[in-house]
Design brief:
This protein has about 180 residues and is α/β, with parallel strands linked by helices. It has helices spanning about 75-90, 115-130, and strands at about 5, 15-20, 25-30, 30-40, 40-50, 55-60, 100-105, 135-140, 145-150, 155-160. The chain has one domain: 60s Ribosomal Protein L30, Chain: A (2-Layer Sandwich).
Length: about 180
């Protein structure tokens, strides 16, 4: 089962694959998938402990404004179905996958109607529920950016954030599954 561990600094011990903004990567053990500076963006993590395979998406926006999508990883609404299809092609069944959500902060302290982070969170939860993929842990919302290091071998998601004391401002739900 996926777990989140908050750390002040992640110490590299395995080969890291970087996932850029609007990208996704799928990898097998023993790698670490990492993405940095999640503000209003959201990291969607998929994991199959049975296959020791994981995926990390760094989505920027909840949905595209145009019908033509330049990159499926850029939008929550296109990234989730696309990555689930790719995992299926690798032999992972949907009922073997669990998910985690990290990010979706309101770093600019905008009015709630403009809050891209909150819209990213809602869209991810909506699509994952529709797809039947359970969200087992989450660290979402707040006002601080986060960086994520997903250790596929252990099923542990290490989360760093500037200003360590701000980590205690998050809802208790963040620490479920730890």
């Amino acid at each position: 089962m996926l777990r989140i561990i908050k750390v002040t600094k992640y110490r590299e011990c395995k080969r890291i694959q970087i996932v850029g903004i609007g990208e996704f990567k799928i990898s097998r053990n023993p790698k670490v998938l990492a993405t940095y500076a999640l503000g209003s963006c959201i990291a969607i993590i998929f994991y199959s402990s049975e296959h020791k395979i994981g995926a990390l998406v760094h989505a920027m926006l909840p949905w595209p404004r145009r019908k033509i999508v330049d990159s499926p990883g850029k939008y929550v609404s296109t990234a989730i179905p696309y990555v689930l299809r790719k995992l299926h092609e690798l032999g992972v069944k949907k009922n073997e996958i669990e998910a985690a959500l990290i990010g979706g902060a309101n770093v600019l302290n905008l009015m709630s109607t403009l809050n891209i982070g909150e819209r990213n969170i809602r869209k991810a939860k909506e699509i994952l529920a529709y797809e039947g993929v359970p969200i087992v842990v989450e660290d979402v919302g707040g006002r601080k950016s986060r960086s994520v290091y997903f250790d596929i071998e252990k099923g542990i998601i290490y989360v760093t954030s500037p200003n360590r004391e701000s980590l205690f401002d998050y809802p208790k739900k963040v620490f479920e599954g730890v």
